Amino acid sequence: MEDLEPRLPRSGMNPCAGEDLSRLSETELTERIDIFAKEIARLQAELSRRDGVRAAAEALFGKPPS
Q: CA-CA distance, 23 to 30, in Å (whole number)?
């Protein structure tokens, strides 16, 4: 299975959404795209896991009142 843990870019910096990208090279930009894509996949996997837990709980205990 592919490693879904995000990896830091070679520069050792932790990328942050919204920061200035003007000083980054094309290689660094590509690395950041890869890091964020892996982080998105990790977040989606966690949401899916939680949906499964909630569905199992609802199947066992019934859906909570709104």
A: 13
Q: How far apart are CA 16 and CA 20, in angstroms?
A: 9
- Which structure tokens are listed for 34? 């890869």
- Start-to-end Cα distance in the chain: 38
User: Residue 3's pLDDT is what?
Assistant: 59
For 1-65, the DSSP string reads ----S----TT-----TT---TT--HHHHHHHHHHHHHHHHHHHHHHHHHHHHHHHHHHHH-PPP
Amino acid, res. 65? P
Average pLDDT per consecutive 10 residues, the chain (66 residues; last block may be shorter): 53 78 95 94 97 92 84
One-letter amino acid of 14: N
